[in-house]
Design goal:
mainly beta; five-stranded mixed β-sheet; elongated
Length: 282
């Protein structure tokens, strides 16, 4: 061999040509082979690392060698719709290299409250934004106006039912929430009133079997009913709605004393609030 080695095989440690010569009594002959140095594999992942709700992201591996993802894929790009760690390994005769990227689910959530959500015209509503911190806000007041404030207020001049939409954006993700605002015309001279009986007897005798709201000229109402331990057992949110002595899950509640809070809006613009107790006797 040209490096001085004798024998049928030789170990080569660097790139370049190497020649072997064979000699017999009849003469000699030689052959040359050029050894090239192979490139060590490299791989690098690129792509979005935040996963928006209901969407997917594409991860791409750039490599000079065949690759294998931890998902089992061997393509240069994969589409993922689940948060987690994604790794890829590139391998060839010279070794291997790997890279990883963690994809996290966006925490973005859109939520807000409106106070009040109903009333007489003109009605000024304060909107309290409870969306994910750091998100940007875009409000649409049913085509009547817009706002980019975090928690704006808006005045609805005319009567009607309006849909308010909040769109929030964070890290390229978008989420929406909406609420309905009811605006009515005040009825001059018609006083509103509301009350709740303090006892009812749900014994199926068709007399006083349900607890009903006694309302005059009321446009919206909320009654929350609690047991003696402060646990909410039911709620009434419409004029004409009744309580039949069942829990929100449909189970019959026992006899005893229950407590309530009441808020309501009259068509005359009067806000009503009350609290008290209800005796349930079968």
């Amino acid at each position: 061999w040209s490096d001085g080695t004798t024998g049928a095989t030789v170990t080569v440690g660097q790139a370049g040509p190497i020649t072997v010569t064979g000699t017999t009594a009849c003469g000699s002959n030689n052959a040359t082979v050029t050894i090239t140095e192979g490139a060590s594999p490299t791989v690098e992942i690129s792509g979005e690392d935040v996963l928006c709700a209901g969407s997917s992201v594409v991860l791409t591996a750039t490599s000079n060698a065949p690759i294998l993802w931890n998902t089992g894929a061997t393509t240069s790009s994969i589409t993922v719709n689940t948060a987690g760690l994604y790794t890829v390994t590139a391998s060839n005769a010279c070794g291997s290299d790997s890279d990883g990227q963690t994809v996290t689910a966006s925490p973005l959530n859109a939520s807000f409250t409106a106070t009040p959500s109903s009333g007489t015209a003109p009605l000024t509503v304060q909107f309290n934004n409870a969306s994910t911190s750091g998100s940007t806000s875009a409000w649409d007041f049913d085509g009547l106006g817009t706002s980019s404030a975090v928690s704006p207020s808006f005045t609805f001049e005319g009567t009607g039912v309006y849909e308010v939409v909040l769109e929030v954006t964070l890290d390229g993700c978008v989420a929406e929430a909406s609420a309905m605002i009811t605006v009515v015309q005040a009825a001059p001279g018609t006083a509103s009133s509301i009350s709740i009986p303090n006892v009812f007897t749900p014994n199926n005798d068709r007399v006083n079997d349900v607890l009903s709201i006694q309302a005059v000229n009321i446009v919206s109402v909320e009654v929350l009913i609690y047991n003696r331990w402060g646990q909410k057992v039911n709620e009434l949110r419409r004029v004409g709605e009744v309580w039949d002595a069942r829990s929100m899950s449909g189970n019959v509640v026992p006899d005893g004393t229950y407590f309530y809070t009441l808020t309501a809006l009259g068509a005359d613009g009067v806000q009503h609030s009350a609290s008290g107790h209800i005796t349930l006797v079968r």
